[in-house]
Amino acid sequence: MSNSVPPPALTRRRFTQLSGMAVGSLALAGAARAAAAADVTLEIAPYTLEASPKHHIRTAAYNGQIPGPLFRMREGEPQSVEIRNLTKDAEVVHWHGLYLPPDIDGAMEEGTPMIAPRASTRYTMTPKPAGFRWYHTHTFAGKDLTKAQYGGLHGFLLIEPRDNPAAYDREVFLGLHDWNGQFLSSDDGYMNPVYDVATINGKMLGSGDPVKVKQGERVMMHILNSSPTEVHWISFSGHSFKVVALDGNPVAQAQTVSMLRLAPAERVSAIVEMNNPGVWVLGEVRKHVQASGMGVVIEYANSSGKPVWTQPEDLVWNYRQFAGAGDAAQHQDAKTIELIFNSKFQGHGNEELWLINGLSYPQNSTPANSPNLQTGQRYRLVMKNKSMDDHPMHLHRHTFEVRRIEDSPEIAGIRKDVVLVQAGGIVEVEFVADNPGKTLFHCHQQDHMDRGFMMVFGYA
User: Whose CA is closest to 290, among 226, 151, 197?
Assistant: First the structure.
């Protein structure tokens, strides 16, 4: 790896992190301790993950577990939150998928204060919208593949609707993650992270307890890909998934599928009919990734024996199957914002710089270069990926509707906060600017974000 000075985007992001860490954290620490117990308490502290008896990973965790605790909140009911940082690095918690003010959303680029080492912060938030959300760190890693999302700081968050029909018997939450990364130079000279450990809920296949089920149950599986950089394909041998929600939002057309594809930060909620007794494997479809540990045993009551895995032949997934018909004239009032993704080669063995409309963060986020949103206006983001990499694009503090993929007809009814824009591809989404304040838009790959693949949208 090169020892050259990092590009400006890295140093500027690091400067933002360091300069903002004390604001609101040290001052609030004493008040937080003196107040009554919070509804939600997160303690960030060093932790050693036992992914298997042979794989011990030194990292940090929320409340001494990976994934962090599952929080269930009622939509619209205020929650007091206390976060204590017991690590040696500044931290921040992003509440992914929620409509929160910028100062507590959990991104330093929007103005959320960092929590200094040995400090704490406390605030009240009103959770919405309903659905399967999650929370995670939103810090800078650079070349340290033990920090930020590489370190696995994440947890599940379910915002329960005021009226939940609960058309299932119980829920299971599964988090996919990749560990022990290292940067390797690809044939084209770019530096990319690769991993030798993969887990579901912090355990490699065969090392954790099986998920126990009963014949006849309808199990809602909430699956999160918290990987720092990797797309994952998931199959459940002997069973199918009825996908009912993407990123926590109900789809227009529920569909039964043989496998799921999840880009980093995407979530799928699917009902599985437990109608095939036995001991089965739910895991990554690609053999080399499952061999790294990404799988979990699903065991029926009164069943025993070696877990069965049936290898699928193809990788199959398409967002469009969950959509309803769209009307091209339906949203003629939407203003178009074109966003072109590309990279700038920094020299063999160096990290590339990622660009949106020809500029990297923070240069692309000045008032002259970034979108200036009008409250109440509908916008169409036309994302054109001119690079050779896929990019999971995330818009903070809003939900968008996927309207077109490549040259397909208009579609409707797929509401998300992350969408994968494939290499050389085009995806168009629409959203209403209804949550004023600085709004971060970025690729959810940790290495790309660290190398400038971010833009802050402002509100007029």
Answer: 197
pTM: 0.92
Q: What is the pLDDT of residues 404-443, one digit of tens each?
A: 999 889 999 999 999 999 999 999 999 999 999 999 999 9
How far is residue 193's CA from residue 214's CA, in Å, rounded to a whole number?
A: 40
Q: What confidence tens digit (pLDDT) does each residue in 165-187 have?
A: 568 999 999 999 999 888 887 66
Cβ pair 286, 313 in contact under 8 A: no
Summarize pLDDT for 350-406 with one digit per residue, the tens: 668 999 999 999 999 999 999 999 999 999 999 999 999 999 999 999 999 999 999
Q: How far apart are CA 125 and CA 77, in angstroms?
A: 9
Q: What percent of the chain has pLDDT over 90?
A: 83
Structural domains in the chain, sorted by start: 8-139 (2.60.40.420), 170-317 (2.60.40.420), 324-459 (2.60.40.420)
Closest CA to 125 of 138, 108, 112: 112
* CA 200 remoteness from chain centre: 15
d(C-alpha 452, C-alpha 288), whole Å: 30
Cβ-based neighbour number of residue 33 at 10 Å: 11
351 Cβ partners below 8 Å, 6+ apart? Answer: 2, 6, 7, 143, 183, 190, 191, 447, 451
Across residues 84-111, what is the average pLDDT?
98
In the block, tokens 């990290």 appear at 351
Structural tokens at position 148: 């930020």
